[in-house]
Amino acid sequence: MKLMCELYGVSRGGYYAWRDRPPSARANEDERLLDLIRNVHHESRETYGSPRVHAGLKRVGESVGQRRVERIMREHGIQAVSERLYRRMTGLSRQFLMVKNEIRELEITHVDQVWVGDVTYLKVDDEWRYLATVMDRFSRHLLGWSLGKERTAELSRRALRDALRTRGMNATRWVYRTVTPQNWKALV
């Protein structure tokens, strides 16, 4: 103990006085608030963060600052759990099983053999945006992307055009089984 006290520059008597000191009135108040915070947080099915917990405490007549609520929640690891953003569409997996996926059976041996695409949504500046991406399946490099307010075919086309530019491919050189000369102009 002597070595630790010297290391931190405190006297042994001061350390023992601090250790044996009863909790302060503020610490006792924090403990009381912690119980209320846990109660409000639990009642919200653990979806409330500090702003809503603070509002809940005010509704029951508790006068406490929002930063104090934030600090207590942070110190005790109380966090909001967000609701699931993805909602499963019934019958979707059955629909995918009906269509044979030839790409899964294909042995991919080189770059530009198979490209895959996806569209997802994310929040940008508190607004939902759709992100379309095209990735090379072999190298797993992102080849093209497009961000837009609406999920349209044009969003995916822009991502595909970006991927074609990235690879330096001429649109007439790029061929896929389902693309015919009739629908190529509509695709690109």
Envelope shape: elongated
Which class best fits the helix and strand makeup?
alpha+beta
**Strand arrangement, major sheet:** 1-2-3
Along the chain, the helix and strand elements come as HHHHHHHEEEHH
According to CATH, what is the class of the largest domain?
A: Alpha Beta
Assign the CATH architecture of the largest domain. 2-Layer Sandwich
Q: Any low-confidence stretches, pLDDT <50, length ≥5?
A: 174-181
Give the helix level as a range of percent: 40-55%
The count of domains is 2
Describe, in plain words, how this protein is organized in 3D.
Helices cover 47% and strands 14% of the residues. A 3-stranded antiparallel sheet has the order 1-2-3. Helix 4 crosses helix 5. The longest helix is centred in the first third of the chain and has 19 residues. The termini are far apart. About 4% of the residues have low confidence.
In a few lines, what is going on in this structure?
47% of the residues lie in helices and 14% in strands.
SSE order and pairing:
Layout: H1 2-8, H2 12-20, H3 25-43, H4 50-59, H5 66-75, H6 92-98, H7 102-105, E1 115-124, E2 127-136, E3 142-148, H8 153-167, H9 181-187
Antiparallel strand pairs: 1-2, 2-3
Helix pairs in contact: 3-4, 4-5
Provide tags for this entry.
alpha+beta; three-stranded antiparallel sheet; 9 helices; elongated
